[in-house]
Amino acid sequence: MDLFRQGLGLLIISALPFTRFVAAQIVVEGSGQYNINVTISGAEGVKATAVIQNDFKMHGAFNVSGADVAQFIAKGTLTAGGLSGTLSTAGGQLFSRTFTGDWRAATHQFTDAIVEAVTGSPGIATSKIVFVVQKTAQPREIKDLYLMDIDGGVVRPLTNDHSLNLGGKFDRTGNKIVLTSWKSGYPDTWVIDLAANNRTRVAFYPGLNSGGAFSPDGTRIALTLSKDGNTELYTIAATGGSPLRLTRTIGTEATPAWSPDGSRIAYISDDRGSPQIYLLPAAGGVAQRFNTNSSYTTEPAWSPDGRLLAYSVRTAGSNQIAVSDIATGRQNVLTISGINETPAWCRDSRHLVFSRGGKLYLIDSKTKKSVQIDNGLANCSEPNVSR
Amino acid sequence: MKKHICLFAAALTISLTACSTDHKKIDGNGGVTGYETEALPDGGFAQHERIPGLNPDDADYGTLAAHVVHFDFDSFTVRVSERPKLEFIAKWLAANPGVKLVIAGHTDSRGTVQYNVALGERRALATRDYLLGLGADAAVLTTISYGKEHPARHGENEGAWAANRRAEFGVAR
What we know:
The complex is a heterodimer of chains A (387) and B (173).
Chain A: H1 2-5, H2 9-14, E1 34-41, H3 45-59, E2 62-64, E3 72-78, E4 82-89, E5 92-100, H4 103-119, E6 128-136, E7 142-149, E8 156-157, E9 165-170, E10 176-181, E11 188-193, E12 198-203, E13 209-214, E14 220-225, E15 232-237, E16 244-245, E17 253-258, E18 264-269, E19 276-281, E20 288-290, E21 297-302, E22 308-315, E23 318-325, E24 331-333, E25 340-345, E26 351-356, E27 359-364, E28 370-373, E29 380-385
Parallel strand pairs in A: 1-2, 1-3
Antiparallel strand pairs in A: 3-4, 4-5, 6-7, 6-29, 7-8, 9-10, 10-11, 11-12, 13-14, 14-15, 15-16, 17-18, 18-19, 19-20, 21-22, 22-23, 23-24, 25-26, 26-27, 27-28
Chain B: H1 2-19, E1 25-26, E2 32-33, E3 69-70, H2 83-95, E4 101-106, H3 113-133, E5 141-147, H4 158-164, E6 166-171
Parallel strand pairs in B: 4-5
Antiparallel strand pairs in B: 1-2, 3-6, 4-6
Helix pairs in contact in B: 2-3
């Protein structure tokens, strides 16, 4: 399994003859779409069937088909406590499992179990998105943080402050969100605890406290502070305090993103005139510039498998999402036109969410196909997705 | 909510008063820490404090509206053309002792959200540093950034962009 997740599985499996089911979890990845027929019965069965079919359409590796041409047949039954589901092929049953939660949550779990069984990579249907909604344009802009399922369902406001709330980012557990809020009048860093349903202000130094990102182990937050007279990168304890300064330039440092092993931080600096990505040891040390073939690169995001950096590159009048392989530097520009901003990786290191023109999108970095996430809200931006 | 802010401001005031004599400062956790023993950066930036009781949301940005400082694209350098405005502000501060100012940095709509938040702060800090160079008292100046979130003029054109790349002066009240 580890080999598959690291991408090496592609080489090994594609060399095999076209026998899909050596074991339940082996299928050729990246070879196109799998035909799947999926139905869910029970009290909310019609709605649940629509939700799971949409999950597969959004994922992109599946084609929802009739039973006659399906390679995979998924059947679910909603129960009082969740859902029991089976996945089968012509060769027999691959799994029979139960999922707990309300019908919608259990349905997304069923999706992810199927995706993992078929592709060997984790599904993303149970992920949540935290994002920003601009509520009014006059006299002063108000932005609030919202939470929703990755398919746009179950939208819930997290702030309602008559102020700016920007840049929400999940910790690895998905239970906490760090954000920048102007609630006090000044830009402070706050942590929302979804389980406890509260929020705590963790950094309110003089000047700027922005761009916070949790370390993978959840103990530190990397962020921009200007308390020492210039905008620099620091880490602080996730509960506040113990600042560790990482940069010392005359320019502007912003948007830290941790490597998944916590050893390095990618961030942007305009110390050489325009914003560029740099990589730095998280404990402090020498920063190295990361080449993106662009003079204006912002918003680095490190893939969960550690191999890729996503970011946005600005050209005249547009902004595109690109991904680079960190080891080889090979670049893949995912979007073509418009102002595409704030890429964030899903847990499978394959899909990303981003915003364009006030709408949120999910994009498959392998096929470059994107789908709009329909959440019924206008003026959305800065999506971040839970692991 | 208002009550909450006032309580916090009161607490901050007390804390700052309590520790101002022995050169301590408030850390982000609300506790008091000593100065960190780290060198100033090459630019020799001065540390600064939030000003107790000065909430930027309540400041008067009208009085000094004629002296808004403008910047070039993706730049925080104070242009030669803007220096007379800052000389005016420095004289105004000298003529109004005790009056406190918040310097609010903004960017145009181009570029991404978080970088613009940081760039807006850098513009506010550059403005503040220029005023300190003219002899302004650091104790009456504080900075804030709104990034690209609060444009002075809506629109995607050179005129709006130029108007939005700015540092404004809010008088405490």
